[in-house]
Amino acid sequence: MKFYGSKEGNDTEVLIDCKAVLEKKDFVTTGVLTYALGDIIEVEVPQFDVFQLGDKVKMTVYSKSGLFVFDTTVVAKELGSVIVINPPENRKRFTEKREFPRVNIQQDGLLHSLHDVQKRNKHLFENPVVISIKNISMNGVGFSIYENSIVERIVEKHLHLHVELDLGFSLPCVTEIVRKEVKESGIYYGAKYIEVPESKMNALRAYILKNQIETYFVAKKEEQSKNALEKKSVVNQ
């Protein structure tokens, strides 16, 4: 990746509405960067249909903080826009509220054991406890426990949990509870990963990326529908 301009204090907001050039073999087009968060960037381009999923492209962004040039890959597209990967080396140039994007999901998992590292106590459940996964990122997971008040009482901050997440593939991992919050729907736990199999990291990254793209497109369509209704309401007044 090449960069020209200020390297410090950039926020992803400086990229929004900037001119962006996408270039692949024998084709160049200019558009507007409309979204940048976590692993994905959206560019609105009139010739979106020229691009195919998996195309390798060079992207040039003309921002107020300087000129950004990097290689990336097309991972999604819809009418009028394409989604490309925001490479890690490019993300490092900008500050975000979260180091990794968190996506909301509805999946289940199993809690196999608890480990109090300080007291050196470990409890293995004879029957694994079902957990409900609420969100996930590359550095942690949020979940609640299915109707098991006894387990809820003993799961506290700083405990290590051996869990198995069902994400369409099995992801066994060790997590540490960093947050416990009582909500109307039950007790919510936020945990960070302590151990994740290296062989599962690519699958986890792909799963999060897929959900991030789907979530973004759903939110975008809802926003477009809302704007269309508001515009129609104004016209009818």
From TrEMBL:
Domain of life: Bacteria
Protein name in the entry: PilZ domain-containing protein
